[in-house]
Amino acid sequence: MGRKLLLEKAHVAGITTYEVYRREGGYRSVEKALKSMSPDQVTEEVKKSGLRGRGGAGFPTGMKWGFLAKPEGVPRYLVVNADESEPGTFKDRYLMEFIPHLLLEGMITSSYALGSNRSYIYIRGEYVWVAEILEKAIDEARANGWLGKNILGSGFDCDIYVHRGAGAYICGEETALLESLEGKRGNPRIKPPFPAVKGLWGCPTVVNNVETVAAVVPIINDGGEEYAKIGIGKSTGTKLISACGNINKPGVYEIDMTISVEEFIYSDEYCGGIPAGKKLKACIPGGSSVPILPANLLLKTAKGETRMMTYESLADGGFASGSMMGSGGFIVLDDSQCVVRHTYSLARFYRHESCGQCSPCREGTGWMEKILWNIETGKGKLSDIDLLWDIQRKIEGNTICPLGDAAAWPVAAAIRHFRDEFEWHVLHPDEAQQRNYGLMHYADPIHVPQPVMA
Amino acid sequence: MSSETKNTVSTVKVTIDNITIDVPAGTTILNAARMIGGDVTPPAMCYYSKLEGSGGKCRTCLVEVAAGSAADPRPMPKLVASCRTGVMEGMVVKNITSDKVKEARAGVVEFLLLNHPLDCPVCDQAGECHLQDLGYEHGKEGTRYEFERRTFEKEDIGPYIQLHMTRCILCYRCTYVADQLTDNRVHGILDRGDHAEISTHISKAIDNNFSGNMIDVCPVGALTDKTFRFKNRVWFTKPVYAHRDCPDCCGKVTLWQRGDEVLRVTARKDEWGEVCSYEGKPGWICNTCRFDKKSASDWVIEGPANINRHSVISQGHYTGLQKPKETLPEVMGGRAPKLMMDIHDVSEVNKIELSQLPGAATGNDFNSPAAKEA
Ligand SMILES: Cc1cc2nc3c(=O)[nH]c(=O)nc-3n(C[C@H](O)[C@H](O)[C@H](O)COP(=O)(O)O)c2cc1C
Ligand code: SF4
Ligand code: SF4
Ligand code: FES
User: Fold this and answer.
1) Which of A185, A370, A399 lies closest to B147 in CB terms?
2) Is this prediction's ipTM beyond 0.85?
3) Interchain contact B323–A (C-beta under 8 A)
4) How far is the CA of B75 from the centre of ligand 1 (A)?
5) Which of A215, A278, B18, B359 has CA atoms 20 to 30 A from the CA of A348?
6) pTM for the full predicted model
C-alpha cells in the first residue's frame, strides 16, 4: 500500500461536513501556520517539500510563490484553478467532491503565506454540484471562524469565493482564467507580464491547481522535509491519477511516486489490468495534451529502463520516446482501439476549444481535424500524413498559449509512433472501415543497442 | 562619443538583421525595426500602435531572438511576437536573416489564407489590402487546403459599414476601436476558435460617431465603407489630402476622387498603414466627415496624397488637381454635339437589373419575353 496524504480520509463517513473533517484532524495546518509560523516560513516549507504544480506543467510551487511581487499597498490574490476540463483528467473533481474542506484548508494556509485576503476558486461550469458542495463547506468554515476577519486572532483576514466558469477548456489556462474571472471573454493574455506581477485586476496573483493547494496541508502538518522523503528525485510526495479507458478499475488513485507504470496498470491496488483478455496497445499517461506512447515505450524507456510514475521517468526520452506527467489523466487503450480515430477525436476537441486568437491555432486545429477525419473515413492520402506533420510543426511554439502546443503534440506523437497505422488506413480504406489495425508490433520489446566494450 | 550630449531618456542598443540601432528603453522589437525601416521590419497584421492592447495575435511578426540581452546572451527558445516583446540592451534579433522565421511566417500566411474566400475581384479592399501584400511578400504559391472554406451567416451591422465575416482574420483591431474610441461598446467577438466572429452584440447598433474608424483599421476587406461599395477600384481613384474645420475630429482626411466626385473619405495613413498622428494624437475621423461630406466643396484640398510607390494605387499618376482642358467645343467648332441615340434603346443588357437575378445572368434572361418588354 502506498502512502496516502490527500485521500486518506476521503471515505470517512460524513467527511464533507465540517464536524467530521475537524474531528479527523482537519484545519490543523491553519492553526499551525497562523499561530506559530510567519508567511515566509510557510513558503519555505513548501519550497523544502519539492512540491510541483499538479495542473500540468509541474512547475515547483515554492518557487512560483517566491516570484510573487509584493508591492506596498497592492492586494495579492490566490486563485485556485478548478477548471479541470482536460479529457482524461477528473482528479480535482474527486477531491473537491469527497473532501472539500481539504481544499479550503490548503487555501487558507496558502493565502496566509501569499498574503491573499480574497481567494478564488474558479470552477468548471459543468461541475454544478461540486460548486454547491464547496459553497456549503465555505459557509461552514466561515461559521466556525476559519474564514472572515482576524482568523484565530492572528490578524489575518481571508475570504474564499467560488466562481463558476461557463464551459470552456481554455479558461483553465491561467491567464484566460483570470480574464474570465474578471468578467471578460476568456482569451489567454500575452505574457509577459506574468500573473505573479500582474494577474487578477492587475495585481500580483498566484494561480495553482486544486491538488497543488490541497497538498500544502500535509506539507505544513508534517513539514516539507518529511513530504520530500516520499517519491523519487524531484518527484516528491503523492500524486492523484485519474485512470480511465480500457482498464478493469477506472477511478482516481493516490500514488506515491515510487511505483512503475506497469504496476499501476496491472496491480489490483490500482487499475487492475486490461479487461476481457485484451492487450495493452497504447497509453496517454498525463491527460489528452501529452504525447501518446505505444505499450513498449510506455513500460520501458528507450534506454530499456523500467518507466516509473514520476515526472522525470514519464518524460524520459523527451518527445522522441517519452511523454509527460501532465495533469495525471491516465488514458489506457487496448488492442481493439484505433489510434487514428482517437487522434481525430482529440483534434476535434482542440479545434472546438481553441479561443481563436492566434491564427496558427485557430486555423491549424480545424485543418488537422478535417484531414484526420478524411484518413479515418477512408478518404485519406499518404501525403496527408506528412501534411499533418507539417501543420502541427507550424502550430507548435508559435502561439500565444500552450493550447496550440497541446493540440499539436497528440497529433505529432500519434504519427511518430503509429505511422504504420495511419498508412494502413490510407492504403486499406475499405478494410479500415470494417476492422481496426490491432496491436501489431506496438508491444514488441524494443531493441536497446548495448555499448560496445573495447 | 561626446560626453557633453547626455541623453535624457535611456536608450538601448539592439541589432536587427545585423543592423544596430539605439532605441528608447521599452521599445518593442517591431517598433525598433520600424525605426530602421525597409525589409527589416516584420509584417504586422494585428498590432496597431494607436490601439492599446493590440498585437500578439496574428503571429506574422514572429522573429528569432538570437541573444536575449548583453547581460543574458542566451537565445530565446521560441520565436517571439516582435510587436509585443520589448528590446533589451544588446539584444540580437533575426528577422529576414532567419530561416526559421521565414518558414514560420509562410506558415502563418498559409493559415491566414486557409479559410479566406479570395474574392479579391469583388472586394473593395483590393489594392489596399494588407493580406494581399502579406501573401505576395511572405507566402508560398498555392494552398494545400482541400476543404470547403468557412462561411458565416450574413449580418447587417448598420447603414455605413459592410461586414464580410468570411474575409476577417480576427485581428481584433476593430474591437479595440469599439472599446477605446467609441463610448458604448457594442461590437466584439462572439464564439471561439475557428467559428469565432466579430459582431455587434445588438445588430445594427454601431451608430457611434467614431465607429467608421473600424473600416480604416481593418487590414482586410471585412469591414468596408458602404457608401463606397462597388463604386470603384481604389487604384482608379485619385487620393488627395484635404481638411475641414470639424467640431468633432481632426478633420484631416484623404479624399478618394474620380474627377470632381468624392467617392470615399478616409483618415490619412502613414507608411505602416496606420492612421497618421498629429501632435502625438491619432488622427481618427468622425462619421460626419467620413460618410456625409461627399462633395469637394466640403473640403479644403491640400494636394495629392502620399502613396507608397510600391502600391498599386500609385500607378495612377496624379500630380495635382488640374482639370484637363475641355477640347470638345474647340474641335466641334463651337457646335454642341447632339446626343445621337440613347444607349438604353439598343442595349438589352441594360434593361435587366442584374442585381435582381438569383444567379449569374444567362442568355435566357435577355431573351425572355419579360426582358424584351422591359
Ligand atoms: C489550455 C490549458 C488548459 C489548462 N487547464 C487547466 C486546468 O483545468 N486545471 C489546472 O489546474 N491547470 C490547467 N492548466 C494549467 C494552468 O495554466 C496553470 O499552469 C496551472 O493552473 C498552474 O497551477 P500549478 O502550478 O499548481 O500546476 C491549463 C493550461 C492550458 C494551456
Ligand atoms: S494558442 Fe489557441 S487557445 Fe491559445 S491563445 Fe492562441 S488561439 Fe487561443
Ligand atoms: S473585421 Fe477586420 S479589423 Fe475586425 S477583427 Fe476582422 S480583420 Fe480585424
Ligand atoms: S502583429 Fe505581432 S502578432 Fe500580429
Assistant:
1) A370
2) yes
3) no
4) 26
5) A278
6) 0.90
